[in-house]
Amino acid sequence: MFSTQFVLTFSLLLSLPILFLLAPRFLPPRHPSVPIPLPDELDDLSLFNRAASLSGPSNTFSHLSSKSPKLKIAFLFLTNSDLHFAPLWQQFFQNAPSKNLYNVYVHADPSVNVTRPKGTVFEFRFIPAKKTYRASPTLISATRRLLATAVIDDPANAFFAVLSQYCVPLHSFEYVYSSLVTSTTFDLTQSPSESAQYGGVRLKYKSFIEIISKNRSLWKRYAARGRFAMMPEVPFEKFRVGSQFFVVTRKHALVVIKDRTLWRKFKLPCYREDECFPEEHYFPTLLSMADPNGCTHYTLTKVNWTGTVNGHPYTYRPPEISAELIYRLRQSNFSESYLFARKFTPDCLKPLMGLADSVIFRD
């Protein structure tokens, strides 16, 4: 006869394969899902409250009536490495008709030694930053930090473009500015009433953010924190996905900064990290729920998802850089052109600079 202890031990050994298969549901989440430290949360809350206090009627950006507005575009760079294409962006900004049409802000992961390019528009534009991890809510916090800082810094900031260190411009500054601020034909999805002008600028503006409601992995992404973790604030039918690189209006920047409800859900740790990309879920879901008609549902940053590796898009390398590539990356079914593109290896800088004057900045 076998002892009771032997039987229990043998049964446990037999169950180990099953426990192994179920482990992701019960084991503590891995590194990227570590909760955001309370001091970081409190720092952010103070910053966001300051920015939210600027949301009076004169600061909300939805309709304009000034005959000579000095609207600015805030370029928000989110990076955890050197700004590889700083020389290209420097030329982009130098060619602007006025320095009073843009501002630059950089959130650089403080745990990485990021060079501050001397003598460039980037040198003194680094904001107080916190550590970030890919596929984690820290990227949401970093983006919100950039938005809040830009809102506080300059009330003329009307559009907020989120970019990475691997993004490059596809057009001149003038083309980008006129497309966002003055053109009545740039957004091919706009109705005639939405694209109407007064005093040389459009009366109504939308945010250019990708919002996708149909995706094969949508349920897996939604349930990555647990089947009912997002309820009741975010029912599955309201859950959306999209690119973390977008251009939003001041009105929508304030929506993001003032949110507390959805943030409590999207900062929860995931137990399915292969399906958990909070930065690709939070912004599309929030703005889709808050103002779906105020968003174009598409992004202005071209990304090639052919040959995706570990969740990363296709990465272009120097031999591929050509005028034909730039022209191809510009092509869009929703707007007259994409304005930015990613992802490029750092050594693409030289061939891109070679095309700057003759192709990229020649619209």
Automatic annotation (TrEMBL):
Membrane topology classification: Single-pass type II membrane protein
Signal sequence range: 1-23
Keyword Transcription regulation: no
A cellular component annotation (GO) from this entry: membrane
GO terms, molecular function: glycosyltransferase activity
Classification via InterPro entries: BC10-like (IPR044174), Glyco_trans_14 (IPR003406)
Presence of the UniProt keyword Glycosyltransferase in the record: yes
Localization per Swiss-Prot or TrEMBL: Membrane
Superkingdom per UniProt: Eukaryota
Database matches in Pfam families: Branch
The entry's keywords: Glycoprotein, Glycosyltransferase, Membrane, Signal, Transferase
UniProt-recorded name of the protein: Core-2/I-branching beta-1,6-N-acetylglucosaminyltransferase family protein
